[in-house]
Amino acid sequence: MEQREMKELLQQVAEGNATVDEALLKMKMAPFEEIDIASLDHHRGIRQGASEVIYGAGKTPAQIDKIAHTLWNSGQKTILITRMSQEAAETFEKDIPFTYYEEAKVGLVGEMTAPKQKGYILVATGGTSDIPVAEEAALTAEILGNRVERIYDVGVAGIHRLLAHAEKIMNARVIIAIAGMEGALASVIGGLADCPVIAVPTSVGYGTAFGGVTALLSMLNSCASGVSVVNIDNGFGAGYLANLINNMEADK
Length: 252
Description:
Helix content is 38%, strand content 19%.
């Protein structure tokens, strides 16, 4: 939707010729922008509450650069880039604010959104090897405007490490439980928490872990109520879902 069209629409609301809900619907249905390599959805934030995210894997550094700059120049002031390679980060044109988080392979154009809710999202990992996926989840949630707490390397092989954080677990609004191997962490946390638990299986583990399939099936078969599961290594999906839950109207 161009500025002229939006101004006309707002004028209709001011004059009583359109309701606020009618105007909002038209904004949600506004067209996207086509560039030679992508079709950019500038109004996703209006429809879904979070603006378009760039998935970096499979894109060249030049493509990432062009998409990010187009979004920025169109008014999107917080742009998340996931699965961004070191090469793409190094060659990114720094004429706009840019930060790269190497461990998570996350790029940020602009600044993180200030937390919108008093509640926090807790990100927990079974082991240190799960931290890259955890950081993708945590940074996604933080960039989208959430307070995030982290407890890493608290897997069931030494369950007393997890229980030492019982207060944090019980006070969280959403928990993201990230683990490879047999993926038991999500079930244990699900048995302690009174909030939604988002389980993320990782591809960490020996041969019969099957690249995360064993953890995935274990989490899908969790006997703990309130546990949902995203795909293997999908930290972004978990962080995004946790953001939606944390920003629902009801406060914890």
